[in-house]
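In this section we walk through a basic example: taking a raw amino acid sequence and producing a predicted 3D structure, encoded as C-alpha cells. The instruction is simple. Fold the sequence below.
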Amino acid sequence: MRIVTKLFGLTIFLGLAGDFKLEQRPNSDPRYDVAVRFINDYVDFLSEKNSDLEITEWVQQQSTVTHRFKSGLQKFIEETEFLDFDPILDSQDYPEGFKIDKTASEFVIVKGTDWPEFKLVLKLDQQGEQWFVDGSGV
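The resulting C-alpha cell sequence is shown next.
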C-alpha cells in the first residue's frame, strides 16, 4: 500500500495526472541503472560538505534527468514554505547508497545498501533511445 501511495504522490508531484500521451516508443527495456546511478550520485552530493550548490542547481546539471522532473522539483521547492525533509529522498535521513530492490515497467524501487528497510521509488522515461530519471521522492 505504501508503494501505491508513493506512486500516486509521485504522479501528483510531477503534474502528470491527465498529461499522458500515447506515443510510439522504441521497444527497449528500461535502463534501471540510470536511476540507481542518479540516486547514488545524489547521496554523494548531499554528503559533500564543500558544495555550495543547492539541490535544484545540482539537479539542473544532471544530464540523465528529464526537464519535467527538473521543473517539477523547482516548482515544488518554490511553493513549499517550510521544507523539513529532502523532497528527492522523501525523508530527513537516508542510507549511504542504494541498490535495486524491485522493478515494474518504468518504475524502479531501490533500497538502502546499509539500510534495506529504506525504500524509494524512482520513475524512468524513455526519450528516443535514451532513458532518463523522471521522478523520485514526493
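Looking at the output, two observations stand out. Residues 52 and 91 are 21 Å apart (CA to CA). DSSP finds four helices and four strands in the chain. In the next section we compare this with other chains.
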